[in-house]
């Protein structure tokens, strides 16, 4: 118990003195204890004096546990374990403070394009309001100068609030999901009695009791127990069950938080809780570090800067041109204008110049990005991708590498019988198992199932989600699942044939044996069932069951056949189990002692191969990634043989490099980078290895997606450009670290995420192609018409530009951002991280369409009166002419929007258009809106009604955007350098090169073997020749 408090203590010194008392009271610090398990360090435990000294240092009796009244005698105001919890902490993680909506709004506003738009809108507002209420404003016209600035400001606000509210709601939903975790109870020893308490009330020093099926909530050191095995696959990636034992006996004494008890029972002393535990430290590490800009965000920021510079340059050129034009015109006039007239004209010119900047800014761009991401994330949920970080969606579109965990991600994390030969009847995959049952003799089938069910310690229970699962050794669970697939009621079988003797699995004999008493049997009275390592059990067999169900004696050939099968299964990284039995008499039964079974004269039923099988669709997904130019790498804690075999089955290991974590870590940095270029499998990896691989890939310019479900995957998921976690099998650590959660745990869903990511990037590019064409034409038209006009006025009014630049842009963003992904997206390579947002083909289309539209518009301005038989001197005909130019300009954009559905050189722009209902709907809305503005816009829009002929001509001229787009696409690219034309990511070592190197290496090995055989043959021959021939007689 803690020493009593000193009454003379003064309050200000309380904390300092308590800290000294704590360090004196406990022999070990939290950091010292945490170092025992991260990584596991038996040497450090020995230095500390083993479990005995740990118990002494933590002031706990291993038989009685902690006292529930510890610390209460110190002062009445304190809770039990006050000193212990203050020093070692509680078994709860500190709650993350949720970002306020205001802070999220501020974060969303830190976008260069939005800031640029805000500046432009404020300038537009100031100029518009001053114009509306100046003496120059024409009487009778509505004061709408403020509308454009206000509308741009409203668009900025809409984007900011949409993003902020979306992030706020997602964070709220995720926190709500986490808060639903059950506050489960655990068993421990306190006051010498077994008690159940909340998992959050566990203290360092508690003696915890572990039972099968339990998820360990703290780190501990093994004290005692029986056959305790833990599954640490979610924590370390190790798929094999780890037997726990005392350090002094050479066992693994460390029980990690987050691991699962598979079988046996045990007592452990708790050495770390909460943030100091293995699980807690991983969770806390994920909270550090802010999010970096995505490739698209960086490109958009760069584009915004370039557009701002171009807009300012165009504005300055216009300002200088108009000022020079004004003074030249004034000097040529009969009377030079007075100062007031000059000032008024200068203000008008400055306003025109500022308008150019406003026109140049692509105000619809942030809205397009927001809409594209919002639409994609909504649709991705239908494809079982829950997007937690909005930007991860577009980042995934440019992914060049996928680093995947094996256990639980590529595989099902469930050992399964995948192949076997029982009663000489083969099944080579799970689909053939039912066929095998129909072929095998019923009597032998009954014996096989009886052996599987009875000779097993596994049992059926509930997992943490309440689902019915088998609990126990993974091998035994696999065999029970095999029997369950035939509809076997294992409880009924066990109650009918209860074992009279059980010899649990032991590492020395590598087998398990159960003996049952036979009912209504003639001759034999007992049956011995044996299962275990194939080579051991097969060696104890003298007979086997043939295809007809008859018992045959082993001969050299039949034994060789079984040994060949075992070798073949081992080559496929299958865990081989031999099933055997033997019927014995009561006299033979009496010879069995209680410790060691007599494993001899057995009848071999057959061999089964057990493996953690690939998830359905993994092979197809890996192939889809390969076609898309995305390289899949397996990074796992499993052994190299199993990992390589699984990787080959999945199609991952093809000519590349497979190595282990320790070998990889031992290399220099340059050697590691060289390995990473060709790496396809990294086995026996630690969490640090995964982050190291991700870091090297990112330094090589790759965009990396990491998939995982375990606690050990957390750091790599956080570091990756995009992190995928499993929604069903994934741990809370993995989900917290990830940016996308796979709700169905299907690796194939990542392919869908890749498609949606590429669709988002394409949508933004399509919109940019359309937006910049509109802006370039609008800027040039405003600039040229103002310079050529006697009044320095643009042919397009401010309100008409508002319709073109804002409403059409927003609607176009919605139309082009909601294009669903197609399979074609997977037939191209990923775009380089450093590729320009607007590529050569896009620039070709933007410039080609802009030149065409400017020529059409300027031609209409100059010869439109003659073409449409209008009188330039009549005010009404002037309004008609302006309306015709405006209508033609709008329809050029409407048809160009169809043209912008493709950003490559594909000629068919109507392909899959029927699948995009939103695009068709918006086109109809825009056309109806344009008709309404022209026919009924009147004074507000500066338009007048057109006749059918004028409508027909303007629409036909607008439709010319489509054939012009076709012509632009047909312009050959032979004169363009490949570096400009090709924006694909180029890996350091291509898949083809790796396959070639692998093939060359394979041939070299075969030649070396052939040379060795040739040399061996020559040596043997020379030995035969060199043997001396004995002489028959010395005298001859």
From TrEMBL:
Molecular functions (GO terms): ATP binding; ATP hydrolysis activity; metal ion binding; P-type calcium transporter activity
Gene Ontology annotations for the cellular component aspect, listed alphabetically: endomembrane system; plasma membrane
PROSITE patterns: ATPASE_E1_E2
Membrane topology of the entry: Multi-pass membrane protein
Record EC number: 7.2.2.10
UniProt family annotation: Belongs to the cation transport ATPase (P-type) (TC 3.A.3) family.
UniProt protein name: Calcium-transporting ATPase
Originating organism: Diversispora eburnea
Upper classification of the organism: Eukaryota, Fungi, Fungi incertae sedis, Mucoromycota, Glomeromycotina
């Amino acid at each position: 118990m803690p020493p009593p408090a000193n009454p003379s203590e003064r309050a200000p010194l309380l904390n300092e003195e308590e800290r000294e008392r704590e360090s004196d009271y406990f022999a070990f610090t939290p950091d010292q204890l945490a170092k025992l398990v991260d990584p596991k360090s038996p040497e450090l435990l020995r230095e500390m004096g083993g479990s005995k000294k740990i118990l002494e240092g933590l002031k706990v009796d291993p038989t009685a546990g902690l006292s529930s009244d510890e610390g209460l005698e110190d002062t009445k105001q304190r809770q039990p374990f006050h000193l212990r919890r203050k020093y070692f902490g509680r078994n709860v993680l500190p709650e993350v403070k949720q970002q306020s909506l205001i802070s999220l709004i501020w974060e969303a506003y830190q976008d260069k394009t939005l800031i640029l738009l805000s500046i432009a809108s404020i300038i537009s507002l100031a100029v518009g309001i001053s114009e509306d209420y100046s003496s120059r404003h024409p009487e009778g016209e509505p004061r709408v100068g403020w509308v454009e600035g206000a509308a741009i400001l409203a668009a900025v606000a809409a984007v900011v609030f949409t993003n902020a509210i979306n992030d706020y709601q997602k964070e709220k939903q995720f926190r709500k999901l986490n808060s639903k975790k059950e506050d489960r109870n655990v068993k421990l020893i306190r006051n010498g009695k077994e008690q159940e308490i909340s998992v959050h009330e566990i203290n360092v020093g508690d003696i915890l009791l572990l039972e099968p099926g339990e998820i360990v909530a703290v780190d501990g050191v093994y004290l005692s127990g029986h056959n305790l095995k833990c599954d640490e696959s979610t924590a370390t990636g190790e798929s094999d069950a780890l037997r726990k034992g005392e350090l002094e006996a050479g066992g693994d004494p460390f029980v990690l938080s987050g691991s699962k008890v598979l079988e046996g029972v045990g007592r452990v002393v708790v050495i770390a809780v909460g943030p100091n535990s293995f699980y807690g430290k991983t969770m806390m590490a994920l909270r550090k570090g802010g999010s970096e800009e995505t490739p698209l965000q960086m490109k958009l920021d760069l584009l915004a800067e370039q557009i701002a510079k171009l807009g300012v340059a165009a504005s300055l050129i216009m300002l200088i041109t108009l000022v020079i034009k004004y003074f030249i015109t004034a000097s040529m006039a009969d009377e030079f204008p007075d100062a007031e007239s000059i000032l008024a004209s200068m203000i008008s010119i400055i306003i025109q110049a500022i308008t150019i900047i406003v026109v140049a800014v692509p105000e619809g761009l942030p809205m397009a990005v927001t809409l594209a991401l919002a639409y994609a994330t909504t649709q991705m949920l239908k494809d079982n991708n829950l997007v937690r970080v909005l930007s991860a969606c577009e980042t995934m579109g440019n992914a060049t590498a996928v680093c995947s965990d094996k256990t639980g991600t590529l595989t099902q994390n469930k050992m399964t019988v995948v192949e076997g030969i029982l009663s000489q009847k083969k099944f080579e995959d799970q689909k053939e198992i039912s066929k095998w049952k129909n072929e095998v003799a019923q009597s032998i089938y009954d014996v096989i199932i009886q052996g599987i069910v009875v000779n097993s310690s596994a049992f059926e229970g509930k997992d943490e989600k309440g689902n019915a699962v088998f609990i126990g050794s993974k091998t035994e669970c696999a065999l029970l699942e095999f029997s369950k697939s035939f509809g076997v009621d294992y409880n009924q079988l066990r109650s009918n044939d209860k074992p009279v003797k059980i010899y649990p699995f032991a590492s020395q004999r590598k087998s398990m044996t159960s003996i049952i008493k036979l009912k209504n049997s003639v001759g034999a009275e007992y049956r011995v069932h044996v299962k275990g390592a194939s080579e051991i059990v097969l060696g104890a067999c003298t007979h086997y069951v043939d295809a007809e169900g008859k018992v045959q004696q082993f001969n050299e050939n039949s034994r060789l056949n079984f040994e060949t099968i075992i070798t073949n299964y081992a080559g496929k990284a299958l865990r081989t189990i031999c099933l055997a039995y033997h019927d014995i008499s009561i006299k033979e039964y009496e010879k069995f002692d209680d410790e060691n079974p007599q494993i001899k004269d057995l009848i071999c039923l057959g061999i089964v191969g057990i493996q953690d099988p690939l998830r359905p669709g993994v092979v197809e997904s890996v192939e889809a990634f390969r076609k898309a130019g995305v390289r899949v790498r397996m990074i796992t804690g499993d052994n190299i043989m199993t990992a390589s075999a699984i990787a080959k089955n999945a199609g991952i290991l093809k000519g590349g490099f497979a190595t282990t974590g320790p070998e990889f870590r031992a290399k220099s940095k340059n050697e590691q980078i060289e390995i990473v270029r060709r790496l396809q499998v990294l086995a026996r990896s630690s969490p640090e290895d995964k982050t190291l691989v991700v870091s090297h890939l990112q330094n090589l310019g790759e965009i990396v997606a990491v998939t995982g479900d375990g606690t050990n995957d957390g750091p790599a998921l956080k570091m990756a450009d995009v992190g995928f976690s499993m929604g069903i099998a994934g741990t809370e650590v993995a989900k917290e670290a990830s940016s996308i959660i796979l709700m169905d745990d299907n690796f194939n869903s990542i392919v869908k995420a890749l498609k949606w990511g590429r669709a988002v990037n394409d949508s933004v590019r399509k919109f940019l192609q359309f937006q910049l064409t509109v802006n370039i034409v609008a800027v040039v038209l405003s600039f040229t018409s103002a310079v050529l006009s006697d009044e320095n006025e643009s042919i397009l009014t401010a309100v008409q530009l508002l319709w073109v630049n804002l409403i059409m842009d927003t609607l176009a963003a919605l139309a082009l951002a909601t294009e669903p992904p197609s399979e074609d997206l997977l037939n191209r390579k990923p775009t380089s991280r450093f590729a320009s947002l607007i590529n050569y083909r896009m620039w070709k289309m933007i410039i080609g369409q802009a030149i065409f539209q400017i020529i059409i518009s300027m031609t209409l301005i100059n010869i439109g009166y003659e073409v449409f038989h209008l009188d330039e001197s009549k005010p009404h005909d002037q309004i008609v002419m302006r309306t015709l130019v405006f209508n033609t300009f709008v329809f050029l954009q409407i048809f160009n929007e169809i043209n912008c559905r493709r950003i490559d050189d594909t000629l068919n722009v109507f392909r899959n258009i029927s699948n995009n209902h939103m695009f068709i709907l918006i086109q109809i809305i825009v056309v109806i809106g344009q008709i309404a503005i022209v026919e009924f816009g009147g004074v507000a829009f500066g338009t007048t009604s057109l006749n059918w002929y004028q409508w027909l001509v303007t629409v036909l001229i607008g439709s010319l955007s489509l054939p012009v787009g076709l012509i632009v696409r047909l312009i050959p690219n032979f004169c363009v350098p490949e570096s400009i034309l090709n924006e694909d990511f180029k890996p350091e070592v291509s898949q083809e090169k790796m396959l070639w190197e692998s093939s060359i290496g394979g041939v070299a090995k075969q030649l070396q073997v052939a040379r060795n055989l040739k040399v061996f043959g020559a040596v043997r021959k020379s030995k035969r020749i060199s043997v001396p021939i004995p002489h028959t007689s010395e005298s001859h």
